[in-house]
Amino acid sequence: MASKNYRSGFAALIGRPNVGKSTLLNQLTGEKIAIVSPKPQTTRNRILGVVTRPEGQVAFIDTPGIHQAKGELNRYMVETALQAAEEVDLVLFLIEPPGGEKPESWVGPGNRMILERLQRIGKPTFLVINKIDTIPKQKLLPLIDLFRNEFPFAEVVPLSAREGDGVEKLFHVVLQHLPEGEPIFDEDMLTDQQERTLVSEYIREQVLRHCRQEIPYSTAVLVDVFDESEREPRPGAAEGQLAGLIRIAASIYVERDSQKAIIIGKQGQMLKTIGTDARKSIQRLLGAHVYLSLRVRVEPRWSERPEGLKKLGYE
User: Fold this and answer.
1) Are 129 and 157 in contact (CB under 8 A)?
2) Which of 303, 222, 223 is nearest to 256 (CA)?
3) For 3-17, 72-86, 144-158, 162-176, which range has the lowest pLDDT when averaged over its residues?
4) Digit-coded pLDDT (tens) for 50-79
5) Is 127 in contact with 155 (CB distance < 8 Å)?
6) Over the chain, what is the mean pLDDT?
7) In whole angstroms, what is the distance from residue 144 CA to residue 297 CA?
């Protein structure tokens, strides 16, 4: 039974692409449940991360970066983020330090567009300023004042998701704004992402990491085979010890033959590199040895067609 003052609820991480929402989710949960890349629009679906403490439980929802949507995939991503904002108790609006020197340019049209939508949604909203390790301290207060003039934020929390500074404070401030109530999820639940989904995302992460600019946005990954027949339980196994074998076959989808050639690489070297690095992450996730087989398939213009999105799991 939860204590009398126990609090629980949902909080959505909302913001423009590449402001550090997934890095923050991973820091809050202490596990890698969202892939991270320096390329924008890495996150495509909403990702749940549950943090449970004796004093309360917060279900954080990572969302795709909100941007000017062109094409079916981009529209899907933006709607996914905005719908999450409508369904939660609290919105965490993430920004990163501005690049320009002129304060009047610090908010920008992209952030204003998001704030206008949040005004209409009407949920309590925090301003979370990420990457404060990259900004001079004298810039922070003027930045806060500018954004407070744009929107009535309930709280302002500066932090560095990468370094972990301020992350614990954010959790406690969020908890204070949630209603009293029983835990929503079992205390040992971390995410609603299935292992197959996490595996496909870990593979896509390596495509983002290793391939040049035009490839990642045309890439999707589906797990075709997830054979656990040789998987073994690990009662009392030491940290990092692998038990048994899981056989995985996955397909990397692209839109053009030229993209397929780039991912495969000369004599298959690029695909081998992607597979080797993905397998390491997958083994840590599953706690077992992994045999990973990858193939590259062409699905023309899948990101522009509703039926293409549905086929590759974006629906």
Assistant:
1) yes
2) 303
3) 72-86
4) 999 999 999 999 998 887 766 788 788 888
5) yes
6) 89
7) 47
Cβ–Cβ < 8 Å for 8, 184: yes
Write out the two tokens for 10: 């949902």
Whether residue 2 has pLDDT greater than 70: no
pLDDT(237) > 50: no
| Domains of the chain and CATH, by start | 7-176 (3.40.50.300), 195-311 (3.30.300.20)
Q: pLDDT, tens digit, for every residue of 129-152?
A: 999 998 888 888 999 999 999 999
User: Edge-to-edge, what's the strand order for the sheet holding 289-298?
Assistant: 220-231, 244-254, 289-298
3-state secondary structure the chain: CCCCCCEEEEEEEEECCCCCHHHHHHHHHCCCCCCCCCCCCCCCCCEEEEEEECCEEEEEEECCCCCCCCCHHHHHHHHHHHHHHHHCCEEEEEECCCCCCCHHHCCHHHHHHHHHHHHHHCCCEEEEECCHHHCCHHHHHHHHHHHHHHCCCCEEEECECCCCECHHHHHHHHHHCCCECCCCCCCCCCCCCCHHHHHHHHHHHHHHHHCCCCCHHHCEEEEEEEEEEEECCCCCCCCCCCCEEEEEEEEEEECCHHHHHHHHCHHHHHHHHHHHHHHHHHHHHHCCEEEEEEEEEECCCHHHCHHHHHHCCCC
Residue type, 16: R
Cβ contacts of residue 69 below 8 Å, gap of 6+? 75, 77, 78
